[in-house]
Queue: 2 jobs
Job 1
Amino acid sequence: MSDHAIPTVPLTDAPPIPLVGLGTYKLLGRPGAESVATAIRSGYRLIDTATRYSNERCVGIGVADSGVARDDITVITKLGGGDHGFDPTITAARESARRLGVDRIDLFLIHWPCPSLGLTVETWRAMLALVDDGLVRAAGVSNFTVDQLQMLFDATGRWPVLNQIQCSPALPRQDLRAFMSEQGIHAQAWSPTGRTEGVLDDERVARVANAHGRSPIQVALRWSVQQGIGVIPKSADPERQVHNASLFDWELTDDDMTVLAGLDLGEAAARDSHVDEEF
Ligand SMILES: NC(=O)c1ccc[n+]([C@@H]2O[C@H](COP(=O)([O-])OP(=O)(O)OC[C@H]3O[C@@H](n4cnc5c(N)ncnc54)[C@H](OP(=O)(O)O)[C@@H]3O)[C@@H](O)[C@H]2O)c1
């Protein structure tokens, strides 16, 4: 990794977390555990997994094998849609902790709001009970819209510490992020390279990248971290892992940010958590 270590960002009511973490979707088995351990040895201190990725055990082994102290690493995992509801959430947290091989889950997120189940608030109450009981250090969500976040607060008086959202220069989620910022909810971007939205093939991104002697992927990731948005790019490859975290010894200019603002596909291009559900 470059000389510039990954900075951390403060969370409300939880320890700070790094701005760059490792995504682990599709990392599986022993090779997956090796990728996690390699990332940690190269400087990553934040790992993102989920029950749905079927790799919590693999992440736990990677963390243990890395040689870095467990307390220096933050692991995020997520509750699947099939475990919504108060009691199922409590049971699922215990199962996730067991698979991860940890005494306490650092950050536990509701993966998708899944409104058709009608259990979102009850599930959030269980997440907060897990925090109060100590099995979970901090509770957050993923893929929640403004009204879905507000619903949690109205029912419990407590906001999630972070919301992991689909976000990249093509999907800047301005209104959602502005609301989250007002409430002290950290924004963390999934699929932050914007590869599915064409960011990496865009000639404007290529021009900005060339001007800085960087790659399009680094421009996409730097666009997020420069605004305080966390990123969790996934790579199984040790060199690409280092490349993706080498974002802190250079910066995008205001003109670059103006050019990148032109990539915005509009909110309608993002996945809609009112209809889109994952169980
Ligand atoms: N909360 C949610 O609903 C949600 C949804 C989607 C994803 N996520 C999380 O976000 C993470 C990241 O999202 P993602 O995995 O969809 O997409 P991504 O990180 O934007 O892209 C990952 C892909 O890019 C490749 N890649 C990474 N770095 C590269 C580099 N420097 N050069 C060339 N190729 C590179 C990877 O291949 P290699 O591995 O071969 O390098 C992989 O195919 C996931 O792993 C997961 O942890 C969360």
Job 2
Amino acid sequence: MSALIEFNGFNKFFGEQQVLNGIDLHVKPGEVIVVLGPSGCGKSTLLRCLNGLEVAHSGSLKFAGRELLDKATDWREVRQQIGMVFQSYHLFPHMSVLDNLLLGPVKVQKRERSDALAQAEALLARVGLLDKRDAFPRELSGGQQQRIAIVRSLCMNPKVMLFDEVTAALDPEMVKEVLEVIQGLAREGMTLLIVTHEMAFARAVADRIVFMDAGRILEQNPPEIFFTNPQTARAQQFLEKFSYVAALPKTTQTKELELP
Ligand SMILES: Nc1ncnc2c1ncn2[C@@H]1O[C@H](COP(=O)(O)OP(=O)(O)O)[C@@H](O)[C@H]1O
Ligand SMILES: [Mg+2]
């Protein structure tokens, strides 16, 4: 099957600084990709390039067979097919949940309100928030707002969803409810590109882990290989940080547990 998203020799600069370097990444329809790597390695920039939020690039970036780096690209249209959810939810505070959800489908996509409403309500029910349809964002928890933000994106019927550390700002007890929504999308066969620091989730949800460092992709492997047998020293170091205590030598662990 041909790729839905294709980065080929893709580079991205901020002024003199090259933040993406020779990116080759092909994502097939229905694939779930989790992008891992240390802070500042270019994960967010990679996702943002797919949304036309970044300029100053070279190489090739295709979506559904179309070159996006062409001057003629209509990003307004492309963005409707590529949903993106960030760390902060960006719901309109003065609008109810339903009005937030209907804005894109009705105002931007010019769909029938009744159609869009039926879809919005079905999606709300799926994430367990139908009873919040008339609530305002300030009346919702962070986890609820983030689930609404995901639904808002889904209401545009995107071909792919990008998630950039969507649980990073949430209290721990709310992380699970948001990750479950994403896992549900994965199970349904939606194409997903996910940046996360939740390693157990990454391992469970990903078809492929893409490991980045300093603007380059160093590894692309199924999770069972990446997490048990990382191929590069950088990936090994990265993973060790997430299993800090387990990686400590036994003597150190014992010492830390001793009371003075
Ligand atoms: N708007 C910007 N202007 C200049 N440099 C930026 C900008 N956004 C990101 N960068 C730089 O690009 C690099 C990659 O950033 P980013 O993609 O946010 O990394 P990550 O998401 O992996 O933490 C970093 O060195 C960062 O400082
Ligand atoms: Mg980031």
